[in-house]
């Protein structure tokens, strides 16, 4: 019996799941491209990526939901999708779209600690007056603007304690968007290497940002391959 292509594809999915090699979902989340590309490739290959698993993401989701209920006049949680090569897609969810403008909401806890005022790095964490959007937030909203063809976006930073907020304008940067797409293409090549049974040693890791590695389930792999210092931590 000849079966329609969709049914054949479905059946292949069942066979591969039963044999322990499920089909890799060919999608890359925008939010997964701001840190370690090796982690992103391994998460896709091993099907472990979950954009809302961290407690911060869960608080963020709850607060986004609250905002959606109390503020009218914008569309919230808009899914976006951009075709990459070989059937891969770059996907994400914009917090809100109002007219021609994209909005992203960040809910932050501040230290409110004067003793930290001498450090430029930590000034951003003292209070809302010193807050700035992170490089990651800017490149992510820029990616959404590139996908949706918009020119301006606004990042809202809320103080989780009291929900006072500030707004930061971001203008679309074509070069930054192209660099972001290149990162996605690197991840695709790395997943394809993994599918061929080759480990993509070349794919960029996080340098010395140990805080990213601290919560990464792939530390033992990196320790064995090229980051031996991860073994002893
Ligand atoms: S342990 Fe660090 S370098 Fe290795 S995949 Fe995880 S985040 Fe990347």
From TrEMBL:
<dbReference type="GO" id="GO:0045145">
    <property type="term" value="F:single-stranded DNA 5'-3' DNA exonuclease activity"/>
</dbReference>
<dbReference type="InterPro" id="IPR051827">
    <property type="entry name" value="Cas4_exonuclease"/>
</dbReference>
<protein>
    <recommendedName>
        <fullName>PD-(D/E)XK endonuclease-like domain-containing protein</fullName>
    </recommendedName>
</protein>
<dbReference type="InterPro" id="IPR011604">
    <property type="entry name" value="PDDEXK-like_dom_sf"/>
</dbReference>
<dbReference type="GO" id="GO:0006308">
    <property type="term" value="P:DNA catabolic process"/>
</dbReference>
<dbReference type="InterPro" id="IPR038726">
    <property type="entry name" value="PDDEXK_AddAB-type"/>
</dbReference>
<feature type="domain" description="PD-(D/E)XK endonuclease-like">
    <location>
        <begin position="55"/>
        <end position="222"/>
    </location>
</feature>
<dbReference type="Pfam" id="PF12705">
    <property type="entry name" value="PDDEXK_1"/>
</dbReference>
